[in-house]
Write a structure and sequence with these properties.
Layout: E1 3-8, E2 11-13, E3 36-38, H1 40-56, E4 58-65, H2 71-80, E5 84-88, H3 98-112, E6 116-120, H4 131-139, E7 143-154, E8 157-163, E9 168-174, E10 177-181, H5 193-199, E11 203-204, H6 205-216, H7 225-241, E12 245-249, H8 290-302
Parallel strand pairs: 1-4, 1-6, 4-5, 5-12, 6-10, 7-10, 11-12
Antiparallel strand pairs: 2-3, 7-8, 8-9
Bound molecules: flavin-adenine dinucleotide (FAD).
Flavin-adenine dinucleotide (FAD) binds at residues 8-10, 39, 41-42, 45, 64-66, 94-98, 101, 105, 119-120, 122-123, 125-132, 266, 268, 270.
Amino acid sequence: MSYHCVVCAKQVPDTKNVTGEAMKEDGTVNRSALPAIFNPEDLHALETALQIRDAHGGSVTVITMGPPTACEILRESLYRGADRGVLVTDRRAAASDTLATSYILACAVRKCAPDIVLCGRQAIDGDTAQVGPQMAEKLDVPLITYVEQWLGIDDKTARARRNVGNGWEVVSCTLPVLVTVNESANTPRPRSAKRMMKYKKARSRGEVEALAKGLLEGDFDNYTAELQAAEVEKYCTALSEKGLLLEQWTLDDIDADLSWCGMSGSPTKVHRIQSVVLSGGQYRQFPATQDGVSELVGELVSEHTIG
Ligand SMILES: Cc1cc2nc3c(=O)[nH]c(=O)nc-3n(C[C@H](O)[C@H](O)[C@H](O)COP(=O)(O)OP(=O)(O)OC[C@H]3O[C@@H](n4cnc5c(N)ncnc54)[C@H](O)[C@@H]3O)c2cc1C
């Protein structure tokens, strides 16, 4: 039996390689100072999906929600072996919190009707680890979180070993299922040189439009909006014929209810963002003894941190 896997992958700022001031003065993230990368744990989700396809047949679709630049990780997925890449992009999705993000992704996943949905455990920018579990609820499928080893599928039953903090447990459930994958689950395969040659020119319609706009800028006398649209159409058709047009879906394409998307679908409100930098004087070490622990607890209670 073969399986259709959908991997949700996010493009994130590389918080480990800061090339300028990481935070702006207003306390928000300065994305231009941080190179964009494939969310690390999503690579492990992709590898799990590729291993499932290699063992049983089927296909691997990668979905990312973000601006057209997020197509970079769709190409990366194709280089590593994915069969299909889909960009979900729409201005009306801006300012989505995790609830709205998981709703939009769930709509896109539903359109693919997969047997197995794979997410990374957590994104390194938002860091909430909420999107996978929220999607499982919206899709009404069982959820296996913190997968550290994929144990296989027997017909319609999947088995996985999940990390439970101080140990592990083996769980099984019937398909369809959503799993969130830890970085300890596997070693992602490298890009294939052959696939890089094949897919390096793969582009989404949004990328083609941006390219056309850049090329035609300053030459508006000769290139009208109609001509520009015709050029875009011609290029997209050529890409499509070669199997190099990355699919691009709007909220309409996935039948999303707009009241659940973007600002209106996001109950989270950020009131204040603060950088907390601990200075040396605020740091105290307690000995790992009965007295040390008593002293620590006493101090936490007296400062109303606990109790
Ligand atoms: C009030 C508010 C406003 C926000 N406004 C914006 C905004 O305007 N623009 C913006 O970019 N962000 C915005 N965000 C951040 C956005 O909500 C999160 O980036 C997003 O919901 C994912 O949450 P996370 O990063 O914690 O992912 P996690 O829950 O940690 O991610 C878990 C897994 O879910 C999957 N996943 C998560 N996000 C995506 C995605 N986009 N595509 C595919 N797979 C994914 C991945 O597999 C990932 O490993 C806002 C957040 C809040 C609270």
